[in-house]
Amino acid sequence: MESCIISEWIKKKGDTVNEGDIILTYETDKASFELFSPVSGKILEIFFNNGDEVPVLTNIAVIGQEGEPVDEFKPGGISPDKTPTKETYDSAGEIFRQTAAPAYQDLPSGITGKIRISPLARKLAEKLNVPIQQIKGSGPQGRIVEKDVRNMAASFRISPLDAEIPVREGTIPGQESSGMAGKYRDEDLIAPDSKTTEDFIIKKLSNIRKIISKNMHASLQNSAQLTHHTSADARKILEYRRIFKADTEKAKGENITINDMVCYAVIKALKIKPEINSHFLGDSIKTFYRIHLGIAVDTERGLMVPALRNADEYQLPELSHALKSLADQCRKGNVNPELLAGTAASFTVSNLGIYGVEMFTPVLYPPQAGILGVNTIIHRPADLGNGVIGFIPVIGLSLTYDHRVIDGAPASVFLKEIRDQIETFDIETV
Hints:
- It is a single chain.
- The chain is of the alpha+beta class.
- It has three domains: 93 residues, CATH 2.40.50.100; 98 residues, Dihydrolipoamide Transferase; 208 residues, 2-Layer Sandwich (Chloramphenicol Acetyltransferase), CATH 3.30.559.
- It is built from nine helices and 23 strands.
- The protein has a six-stranded mixed β-sheet. A four-stranded antiparallel β-sheet has the order 4-3-1-6, with no helix packed on it. Strands 2-5-7 form a three-stranded antiparallel β-sheet, with no helix packed on it.
- Strand 3 and strand 4 form a beta hairpin.
């Protein structure tokens, strides 16, 4: 990570804080986090405002005792004789460690100042898809408690497909609803600070969306990306999927999916054709002996791409469990931020097949040299032998690679190897 964006200061200059108090919320390019105070004291100075993008290892505030000087801590960059080292990063990382939250959380709303809500109530609101911005708390000092959420859920009508939008994007229902039985739909939800006209709505980009947009644009500008498409006979992996669902012993208790088997095939292909298991470093290429597999995960905060380190050490059931665990951490917001950096993975897989996408062009996650897009399974005509033509299920594969690292021919050979691994998938070897 090169920078983060300060979302909301929970505490202000002059406030007294205890160790473990939430000071602010901040966003990296892939996730949102809460920053807990590493010490007890008074906030003597704050150097950045809400919405500011701050480089890593930059002082953002000073906590100390009344009267202590703060000028020496003002941000001024890292001098040449203080080049950050691993120890420096480790020390800075301690400040951002996740600690146990207090019994109640004061969370920013962006609408009416702070929303005072108990963790149980907040968890229930997320589960029931109720926008907490509209709940009037009945607890101490107006704090929202569980019964307030349940009462709101009973009266608030919103369609299931769009229900999470208010929580995820901070939007609120407009004055009118367009869904059946008065339910709110996507187009009925507006941001508190939106500018509206009669026939369109303008919403400000979230900080995470701004950073994702900037990174995607930079990826296309700063690399020589090219995509090859092919498809693989999916009959074997579909059959094994049926076997795994029916025979938990063979699956070792795991719900092994098509995506798990494709990832396993990709890992085997990378072992055989390791040239693309690389990072482009400007004037050099870093090729990995181990396979650190990145997986694209859709979350409420946006797209995350965590890395499963040493993925080549896993057999299929263990790989399936590890991938699901990593995705779950992303969705819960407690994934290790270090696993989200582009340098954490050596190759990435992005699966849009579950959405019915038949072909797409995945974008590289620099400095990685390759990313595989996995498409939906469709039926196509094929030669079944003896002059018989029939329809078989095939899975689409889209390989985007950096032409500065690998040429078209070896990239095509690698894509063919993935296809061969899928088509010759053998349950006895996994």
